[in-house]
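User: I would dearly like some help making sense of a protein record. I have put the entry right below:
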Amino acid sequence: MLTRPIFAENLQHFVHFGPFFPFHPEYRHAQTRKKSARRGLTSAQKSCKIDHNCSAGAPPAGKGGHVMQTPWADTLDRAQPLPEYPRPQMVRDSYLNLNGPWSYAITTSAQKPAQADGKILVPFSPESELSGVGHILQPEEYLWYIRTVTLPDGFNIGRVLLHFGAVDQTATVWCNGVELATHTGGYLPFTVDITEVLAKENTILVCVRDATNKSQLPRGKQTLHPHGIWYTPQSGIWQTVWLESVPQNYIRSLRVTPLFDAHQVEITVEGEGQCTIDLEGKRFTFPAGVPAHVPVQSFRPWSPEHPTLYPFSVTLGDDTVYSYFAMRKCSVETDKDGVRRLFLNGKPYFHNGLLDQGYWPDGLYTAPSDDALVYDIQLAKDMGFNMLRKHIKVECDRWYYHCDRLGMLVWQDMPCGGRRYDPLIVSTPLVTGWHLDDSLYPLFGRTNVTARKAFLNELRDMVTTLYNHPCIAVWVPFNEGWGQFDSQTAVQVIQSVDKTRTIDPASGWHDQGFGDVRSLHVYFQKYKFQPDKLGRATLLSEFGGYVHRVEGHAMGGRSVGYKTCDAPLSLEYALQALYDEQIRPAIAQGLSAAVYTQLSDVEHELNGLVTYDRSVVKLPVQTLRKIFYIENE
């Protein structure tokens, strides 16, 4: 039942326990007052204290759960929001964006509604402010979308494909009254071929069901009762909907693998027939379905400092797609001092990261504009970070494209699922110092065989979908035991698709004692580096979480975080001390990565470096860069 013990520095996340627990922040705060432990500190130091309000958060207020808006909301084109091409790694000339006002209805039966309730702005979920609806979809409800589309003259060149970037959670699609497809999985794209039912005017109907945390399917941090570190749910269409036309014989997908040491790129085309690839002014011919090894003449490695991308095109018959790749290599190796570390392009490379949850106060899962996506990534770079851990969410394809071109490493989490999490299980390492065996399904809320299979299938599909993006360096299937099960099997599923990247099997705790890395979350204790007893690379995959509330840019109610700094000066002091006294010494001793919590505030979780509405960076960017920047040789 139990596996290896953990070290004492891992005691954290006491938010799960009541104040009677000796390490809970309310208990610690009371003891601090009694002992006058802060006697003699400077005023800045005194104002930085354990957050005694982090045990819970009040539900968000306002229509749809939110009242704050980002700076991009005022410039949103409501006739056609998010018009940018949604699939930058497989671009065709054919593109008809269907974002904008759709009719919608919410019912309590599977019978198609007789009339609409109003208009919803696609691709924003009905729970969001920007959708114009402001309704939290309940497990017993059906969400209906309807829109009529007339294809431009000459648009159809063979087949017409209807693409959905993501629909949460189960979507059934009709076109012109014919049911064509049902897709389950709230984070990944899917395509419906509507060629056989096309007419002059085409009516698209979509029905969505989403049980959120009442289901055991992957849901991330959504909950029907937002509190603490669990957020407002979102449902339905939340990424771009679009049409394209392709020839009868067309390129269905590309799989691109940089062969770094050989100075080649491997390209596999899903299709039928002979293909040509145009790269660096040269043309190569190869059959579809067979991996083609193409030389890269002007070899330049990709890194956050030098994010070199190679554009290329592939033609199959009358179909041409445009794409790009990068030459980079991710590995875990031994450095010159005998320490196991993360390597990039054959050299030790410290992953200096931020936790990034990808939530927006006005759009929830959906950024209000493409510029907003760029803002977050560029801000992280400007603050001195070279990595973002995309936490318990899968983003739209354009986010990864921007990371590719701007130079930002990505650790990609799999959204969690399973039954309601037992605090005594997901926080067990805090109390016992032991890791639980994750094959004990009842303890982890994973007794449902169908839900376990669905998780592994969606994990495989996520890795397949994102495989070509050079920015992704690490896959993270489980976090803090939330719905964790059979992590060795999950790793095997990932490796069946991708053997080129590092895998963090269990971020935080419930380490099963295998793999290339040891992953730790440390918040309330001082972090002191200790080499892994199994000789793995050590990752500090979450830490920090310092709260600083900016009035007028934060939700009301109780704040959630791990330490509160009342003034900007106290936040600066605390961050500087954290990195100078804990992180930098640990790097010299062998720490391979650090992920500070977090990029932005999210609802009542106010431990971001920028406010939830992205209006205020809590310290000057140059000050933050001086604190956080760590140079890689």
Observations:
- The longest helix spans residues 568-589.
